[in-house]
Design a protein that fits this description.
By secondary structure, this protein is an alpha/beta fold. It has helices spanning about 10-25, 40-50, 60-65, 75-90, 105-115, 130-140, 165, 175-190, 280-290, 300-320, and strands spanning about 1-5, 30-35, 55, 70-75, 95, 120-125, 150-155, 195-200, 210-215, 220-230, 235-240, 245-250, 255-260, 265-270. An 8-stranded mixed β-sheet has the order 8-9-10-7-11-12-13-14, covered by helices on one side. The protein has a 6-stranded parallel β-sheet with strand order 3-2-1-4-5-6, sandwiched between helices. Helix 2 (about 40-50) links the parallel strand 2 (about 30-35) and strand 3. It is globular, with a radius of gyration of 20 Å. The mean pLDDT is about 95.
């Protein structure tokens, strides 16, 4: 299956490395075929540096290539909605980087459009596909920490030097870039919340740089989440139970877990299975789902993508954040 990368930024380079590593480790299922950027020189530079066969100076030109099967969308959040529909118009399957779109309304419309065109579309939020998700779930289900009641998670990077983070025109801010990981982490543990509350601080352009989020459930469970784009955090997640607690090292790409009892003694630990880049799991599941004729990936079904976008819509309404690119195409 031939993969094309739409966009030639840093995250596109990680995906290109992932495909090379997969091929080198006995996975020929996907081929690093093409890259498209807004100018041909940029695409050619990326192709040379990353071992990509073809370079295109426009997205439409790459998508018109009949040999192309699957597209990884690596453009800013603000462009995902239109690029999903553009790929679907050309009959290409789609792996779209998180956040999937900028609103639930866009997500629903893009998914409906892709389904109508008969192509798979899935959100590339890597933590949903990784084996550590299952390991964390199985550890909790064992009862080793008793009944989980409280969860905390934080994720922060000093990334205000990136225009896509600070510009509302590009749907910038901490929420869509890093807050989406904290929300997904909480929901993979506790499921859908009954209430969501959030506040933030903003830059002069009105983009959120620090987010404080509380999710709550009718049975008394609570998740306290922090997402920031203007400083570095420890990236830890902690799940607290009636018999102890479980610490996750880096919720953005879990590297292991440690379990402590009610006497604060370490009683269990699991390291992350060896990774290529961590992106390989979403790629392999996407290819498998396409071969099976599925419209979505089991690890991140469309209903979950839309639900997380709905949560972020609620949070943005509370925080007073709106993006210029929230429109959807006329029906």
């Amino acid at each position: 299956m031939k993969l094309g990368i739409l966009g030639a930024g840093n995250i596109a380079g990680v995906m290109a490395k992932t495909i090379r590593e997969l091929n080198a480790n006995g996975h020929p299922e996907v081929e690093l075929y093409a890259v498209a950027a807004r100018d041909l020189d940029r695409a050619r530079t990326f192709a040379t540096a990353n071992g990509v066969q073809k370079a295109f100076g426009s997205y439409e030109e790459m998508l018109s290539d009949p040999q192309l099967d699957l597209v990884y969308i690596a453009t800013p959040h603000s462009h995902h909605y239109h690029h999903i529909k553009l790929c679907a118009d050309h009959g290409k399957h789609i792996l779209c980087e998180k956040a999937f779109t900028v609103s639930a309304r866009q997500a629903e419309d893009a998914i409906r459009y892709a389904r109508a065109k008969g192509v798979l579309v899935t959100e590339a939020i890597w933590t949903r596909y990784q084996p550590m998700r299952r390991i964390i779930r199985e550890t909790l289900d064992s009862g080793i920490i008793g009944t989980p009641q409280l969860l905390t998670a934080d994720l922060g990077y000093f990334i205000t030097g990136n225009r896509r983070i600070v510009d509302p025109e590009l749907a910038g801010g901490a929420l869509l870039d890093v807050g989406v990981y904290t929300l997904n982490f909480a929901e993979m543990v506790f499921g859908h919340p009954d209430a969501v509350h959030g506040l933030c601080t903003k830059n002069d352009a009105g983009v959120d740089l620090t987010d404080s989020i509380t999710l709550s459930w009718a049975d008394g469970r609570v998740a306290n989440l922090t997402a920031v784009a203007n400083c570095v955090s420890d990236r830890n997640g902690v799940i607290y139970g009636t018999k102890g607690f479980l610490v996750v090292d880096n919720i953005n790409n879990p590297q292991g877990i440690k379990v402590y009892d009610d006497g604060y003694r370490l009683i269990h630990s699991v390291d992350c299975p060896p990774q290529l880049t961590g992106y390989e799991y979403e790629v392999l599941e996407t290819v498998d789902a396409i071969h099976k004729g599925l419209p979505e990936c089991p690890s991140m079904p469309h209903r979950e993508t839309v639900h997380v976008m709905e949560l972020m819509d609620h949070l943005r309404a509370q925080m007073g954040i709106r993006y210029p690119c929230e429109e959807i195409d006329p029906a």
